[in-house]
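Quick one: structure tokens for this chain, please?
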Amino acid sequence: MIDADQIARDLMCPGQPVYEEVVRHFGRGILSPDDTIDRKKLADVAFGTPEYPSKRVEELNQIVHPAVAKYQNKWMNDVASEHPGAIILVEAALIYEANLQSDFDRMIVVTCPFETRVHRWMDRTHTDEATARAELERRAAAQWPEEKKVQAADYRIDNSGDPEKAARQVREIMDTLKITG
């Protein structure tokens, strides 16, 4: 399995062409003192804040998505060459938004109620509820609605509660994929 968010983070490291392009478009104000991209500052510029009222998420996506797609497609081809018949998984939140769904044989969407996501974001980022809610709402505004993704997907995993329940759903989907190929 490969994680598209991690690919994007790696491609936005100093010295990488994506890093150079992002800094060229968004300015040195998005950088930390060590010249790495400060993801919070970049998110503020991309998704908009009172300080940065114009949203530039499409501009960011036009830089990052093609590079991530190229990397993950190379990886998928390499794995398929080495392991014919393997089930290859790419974890990515923005496949539909980047119009990359045709790169995949099957689509699995993981869902969770918004309130649960808010509380998980609070736990992960150590922020208060209002901050977490505002951040998730501004990010969600740049994404397909969850129900639209569910309708477009081949499989759905409900990740709203018991981890064992979600794990069972994953095993069932994997068993189906092993049979159908």
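The longest strand covers residues 108-111.
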